[in-house]
Amino acid sequence: MMENEQLLLLEQLSRQIDPEQVPALVADYHKMITKYNCALREVRTKFEVLNDELSIKSNRNPIHAIHTRIKNPKSIMDKLARKNLPFSLTAVQNELNDVAGIRVICDFVDDIYEIAEMLLKQDDIRLIQCKDYIRNPKPNGYRSYHMIIEIPVFFSDGKELLKVEVQLRTIAMDFWASLEHEMKYKKDLPPEESASISNNLLECATTIAKMDANMQEIKNKIYPR
């Protein structure tokens, strides 16, 4: 854990529990996060193997990029608070599905569904939840394919099942989502301007969806099934 994140965790925990218990809890939290990092490596490797295999079969790499992240302590605590839950490692593991996240950027929409299907066919992967925001975009225009999966990770003292959030997007979807996320946190905008920007972002999302569809048609002509 980065030093500033550990200090943040210490500070916030000291307000919730007996200060004498904080160092031990921080140590256990660090172990838990290490396990989530291991789960991310397992899932990332699976996507990399699929990408390598498909590059031989179809003479192209369907995956453009892979990004991983672990939720920071403040985000974890805030999410538990929204659920009216006190901070505990049990609550983190049982109540939160997105502590570990992996974002897979694909070139085309059909790559997303193909890669997702191949991942779920692997017998050590269990699908917990799936939300298709490509076929059913969010009201603000957000499009992506989300899965919560469970994967076994083997440690020296045994196997643990850990949850990982998987997001699959095209390059265009990721471009839009990254900018929308950045602008969403500009809190100093007047309401009228904020509403106007939201409308513009929705228009951009519609344009991007059309572009993805057109690019898919071109790809199908170049790489017919």
Task: Provide a concise account of the structure shown.
With 225 residues, the protein is an alpha+beta fold. It is 55% helix and 20% strand. The chain has one domain: Beta Polymerase, domain 2 (2-Layer Sandwich).
What is the fold's blueprint, element by element?
Layout: H1 3-13, H2 22-58, E1 63-70, H3 73-82, H4 89-95, E2 100-106, H5 109-120, E3 126-132, E4 145-155, E5 158-170, H6 171-184, H7 191-222
On the 0-100 scale, what is the average pLDDT? 88
For the termini, the CA-CA separation is: 46 Å
- Total helical elements: 7
Number of strands: 5
Low-confidence stretches: none
**Which architecture name does CATH use?**
2-Layer Sandwich
**Main sheet: strand order:** 1-2-5-4-3
Task: Please tell me about this protein's structure.
- It is a single chain.
- With 225 residues, the chain is of the alpha+beta class.
- It has a single domain, classed as Beta Polymerase, domain 2, CATH 3.30.460.10.
- It is built from seven helices and five strands.
- The protein has helices at 3-13, 22-58, 73-82, 89-95, 109-120, 171-184, 191-222; strands at residues 63-70, 100-106, 126-132, 145-155, 158-170.
- The protein has a five-stranded mixed β-sheet.
- The longest helix has 37 residues, at 22-58.
- The termini are far apart.
